[in-house]
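Researcher: Let's run the pair from yesterday's discussion. Sequence first, then C-alpha cells, for each.
Model: Starting with the first of the pair.
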Amino acid sequence: MRAILRARHYSRRTEESYVAWIRRYIHFHGRRHPADLGEPELTRFLSALATERQVSASTQNQALAALLFLYQTVLEREIAWLEGIVHAKRPERLPVVLSRGEISAVLAQMSGVEHLCASLMYGAGLRVLEALQLRIKDVDFAGQQLMVRDGKGRKDRATLLPTTLQAALRQHVESVRDQHAADLRAGAGFVQLPDALRAKYPSAPREWPWQWLFPATRHYTDPATGERRRHHLHEPSPALRPPRRTRRRYPETRHTPHPPPFLRHPPAGIRLRHPHHPTTARPQRRQHDHDLHPRPAPRPPRRPEPPRP
C-alpha cells in the first residue's frame, strides 16, 4: 500500500494516516487479512467508530477513504454499496476569529524566530507547514510577495508579504545566511530537495536559494546519502503554540486557539466582519489591516474642469 501511495504522489501525511487506519481495521477483526473481509466487516468497523469511539464525521470519512483505497486500488476489488453504516453527525460550527487586541496579546508573548514565523502566518495567510517549508528563493522582497510551493493539494500560489515584516525578515535572512556559511565550512550545509531534483541538479542541496527560511537548530545525518542536513522547524516548535500564560496575563483573551484559526482564518490583509455580529448592521464588507499592509498615499484631487460655454 505504501508503494502504491508513493507511486501516485500522495503526501506523506496521507500515507501515514491511511496505513494507520488499515492497521486499526485489521486489528479490529482479529488480525484477519483484508482480502478475507468484505462489506459486512467494513460496515461494522465504520459503525463502531461512530457508536463506540464517537469519532467526528471527518475522521469517519477519512477511515472510509483509506479502506476504499485499499480495496479498489491495492487489492483491485470492487466494493458494493455499504448499507447500514452509522454516520457520525457533522456539526455546523462557526470559525474562531480573534480580535486585533487578542492577536496582539498572543504575539506579544513571542520573540525571535517564533514571533517572526507566527506574524508571517497571520499576515500572509499561511498554513502551518506552508510557513515552515518556505525556502529562501520563495521570498520576493522586490515584488512584496511569497511563493507557496506544493501547498495543500500540491498546489502553488502567491500571497502577500506584509510590509511591516520586511525589515525583520531581511535581518533574519542574513542570520540564516551566516549560519549556512558556517555549515559549509564545517562540511555540512545540505538540504532536502523535492522529488528527484537532486539527480537533476547535484549541487542544488548546498546552494543558498534552496535553504529553508526557518531552519532547525541542529543537524541530522541522512542514512541514504550520509549528508549532514538541516531540516526546517517542526510543528511542535514554540512558533506554532501560543503560550498558555497569555490567557492568565490577558483575561480578555477568550482562549488560546490552534494555529489555523488563530493565524490564518481571514485572508492576508483582509478581515471579514461576521454577518451575525451584533455590531454589524450591514452585510459583510472588507476591512483593511493597516498594521500589516499600510495603504499607499492617496492621490491628490483632480482640478475641476472649467465650464464650457
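Model: Moving on to the second of the pair.
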Amino acid sequence: MQVEHDETENRFFVRVGGEEAELAYTRPARGVLDIQHTYVPERARGQGVAEALAVAAFDYARRRGDRVIPTCPFVRKWLASHPEEAALVDRRYAPAEDGPRA
C-alpha cells in the first residue's frame, strides 16, 4: 500500500479503487502535528488502510522531531494498541479518560 503525503494540503492519503483514504492534520504550533481526521472509503475499511495512514503520520512526526496531538478518534484508539508511539504525543493536549487535562 502506497501512502502519499501532501504537505501543502496537510494530509496523508492512499488511493483506493478510484477514491482516496486520508488522514488530515493541522499545525497549531511549530513542532506540533494535530491529527484531526481519518477517513477510509467504506469498501476499503478493515484492510489496514487507516492504520497505514497513522503509521505514516507518526513516522513523519518522528523524523521531524514533532509532537503529535491525537484529536482524531481513530488515532486515539490506534494509540491505545500502540503504546510504543506514546512518546510522540504532546501530553499538554492528550485527552484524559474523563475529559481534557488542565
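Researcher: Give me one sentence on the second I can quote.
Model: The chain has one domain: 4-80.
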